[in-house]
């Protein structure tokens, strides 16, 4: 077995261990016997309800969202050739935020399930707008034009969000709850709604990997190898939109994961995106669950949301990566 294959197997074992820890550890202490009882012989007692209705859906959602954000971050850094790019650079996060605020302000949507479709639609519209703006001109979309268009659209939408939440207290309160980024308080309904889009995004990402490898050698080299660079980049952007849009719709914006994880994956795999993507997927799931577990125990009986914990963990870790410059080269 090769080194990279062994690494994938090792990460899979770590992910299983972290999933079990996520089910067993929480702000409410449940003995291991109670965890076993809740998993395999439930009788409806309080501990069983906590295990089956709260922790298992939370763990499953964390795994799926971590995979989506890890792969989305790797694709984004590859297509923009920007080591500091995260999935939100296409305006996906701000588009989702604007749609959520508008749904509250104009339509009175108040439930988390109600936010999902508006957030996903906003993410899709924002990414399409960025892609159209970045594609304007004779040269078509390029890493520079996409980044500039994403920055402009994100700034515009962020300004609109700020204006609305300043005018309406209800929108501000609901938006603050969504904006923090969390996998807690979501049931399996949320997961089943976004899962088809995330699965489609992962399939497209896998198909996109060979073309992205060629494009990492340069546009001219990729074209000489017979790669349709415009189609490859379009597929990549579509995959990013599905993955990040679905994740943001379900959990709100979760920062740093999509930025840090691809760098760690690249340190083990090298520049081959056929390996970077699966490594990023597993590392993303592991990191989000680890941060969520830490957030449950550091402030008992309260919790610190995973979006906050990832910022606290991710910021110093990314500074370490930046100081080791070889890890940020793409």
UniProtKB/TrEMBL annotation:
<dbReference type="GO" id="GO:0005886">
    <property type="term" value="C:plasma membrane"/>
</dbReference>
<feature type="transmembrane region" description="Helical">
    <location>
        <begin position="276"/>
        <end position="294"/>
    </location>
</feature>
<feature type="transmembrane region" description="Helical">
    <location>
        <begin position="115"/>
        <end position="134"/>
    </location>
</feature>
<feature type="transmembrane region" description="Helical">
    <location>
        <begin position="235"/>
        <end position="256"/>
    </location>
</feature>
<keyword id="KW-0472">Membrane</keyword>
<dbReference type="InterPro" id="IPR037294">
    <property type="entry name" value="ABC_BtuC-like"/>
</dbReference>
<dbReference type="Pfam" id="PF01032">
    <property type="entry name" value="FecCD"/>
</dbReference>
<feature type="transmembrane region" description="Helical">
    <location>
        <begin position="146"/>
        <end position="167"/>
    </location>
</feature>
<keyword id="KW-0813">Transport</keyword>
<dbReference type="InterPro" id="IPR000522">
    <property type="entry name" value="ABC_transptr_permease_BtuC"/>
</dbReference>
<keyword id="KW-1003">Cell membrane</keyword>
<feature type="transmembrane region" description="Helical">
    <location>
        <begin position="194"/>
        <end position="214"/>
    </location>
</feature>
<dbReference type="GO" id="GO:0033214">
    <property type="term" value="P:siderophore-iron import into cell"/>
</dbReference>
<dbReference type="GO" id="GO:0022857">
    <property type="term" value="F:transmembrane transporter activity"/>
</dbReference>
<protein>
    <submittedName>
        <fullName>Iron complex transport system permease protein</fullName>
    </submittedName>
</protein>
<keyword id="KW-1133">Transmembrane helix</keyword>
<feature type="transmembrane region" description="Helical">
    <location>
        <begin position="88"/>
        <end position="109"/>
    </location>
</feature>
<feature type="transmembrane region" description="Helical">
    <location>
        <begin position="306"/>
        <end position="323"/>
    </location>
</feature>
<keyword id="KW-0812">Transmembrane</keyword>
<comment type="similarity">
    <text>Belongs to the binding-protein-dependent transport system permease family. FecCD subfamily.</text>
</comment>
<feature type="transmembrane region" description="Helical">
    <location>
        <begin position="56"/>
        <end position="76"/>
    </location>
</feature>
């Amino acid at each position: 077995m090769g080194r990279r294959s062994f690494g994938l197997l090792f990460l899979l074992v770590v992910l299983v261990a972290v999933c079990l820890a996520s089910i067993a550890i929480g702000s409410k202490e449940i003995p291991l016997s109670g965890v076993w009882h809740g998993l395999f012989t439930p009788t409806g007692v309080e501990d069983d309800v906590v295990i089956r209705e709260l922790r298992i859906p939370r763990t499953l959602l964390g795994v799926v969202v971590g995979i989506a954000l890890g792969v989305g971050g790797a694709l984004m850094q590859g297509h923009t050739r920007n080591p500091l790019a995260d999935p939100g650079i296409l305006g996906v996060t701000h588009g989702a935020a604007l749609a959520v605020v508008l749904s509250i302000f104009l339509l009175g949507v108040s439930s988390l399930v109600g936010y999902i479709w508006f957030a996903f639609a906003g993410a899709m519209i924002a990414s399409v707008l960025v892609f159209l703006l970045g594609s304007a001109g004779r040269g078509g979309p390029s890493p520079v034009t996409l980044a500039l268009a994403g920055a402009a659209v994100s700034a515009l939408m962020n300004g609109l969000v700020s204006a609305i939440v300043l005018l309406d207290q209800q929108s501000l309160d609901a938006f603050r709850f969504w904006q923090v980024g969390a996998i807690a308080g979501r049931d399996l309904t949320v997961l089943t709604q976004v899962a088809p889009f995330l699965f489609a995004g992962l399939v497209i990402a896998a198909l996109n990997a060979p073309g992205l490898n060629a494009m990492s050698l340069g546009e001219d080299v990729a074209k000489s190898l017979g790669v349709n660079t415009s189609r490859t980049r379009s597929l990549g952007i579509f995959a990013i939109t599905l993955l990040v849009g679905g994740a943001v719709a379900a959990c709100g914006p979760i920062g740093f994961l999509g930025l840090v994880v691809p760098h760690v994956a690249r340190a083990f795999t090298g520049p081959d995106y056929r390996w970077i993507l699966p490594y990023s997927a597993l590392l993303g799931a592991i990191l989000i669950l680890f941060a969520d577990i830490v957030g449950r125990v550091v402030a008992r009986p309260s919790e610190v949301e995973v979006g906050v914990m990832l910022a606290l963990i991710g910021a110093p870790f990314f500074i370490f990566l930046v100081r080791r410059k070889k890890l940020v080269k793409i």
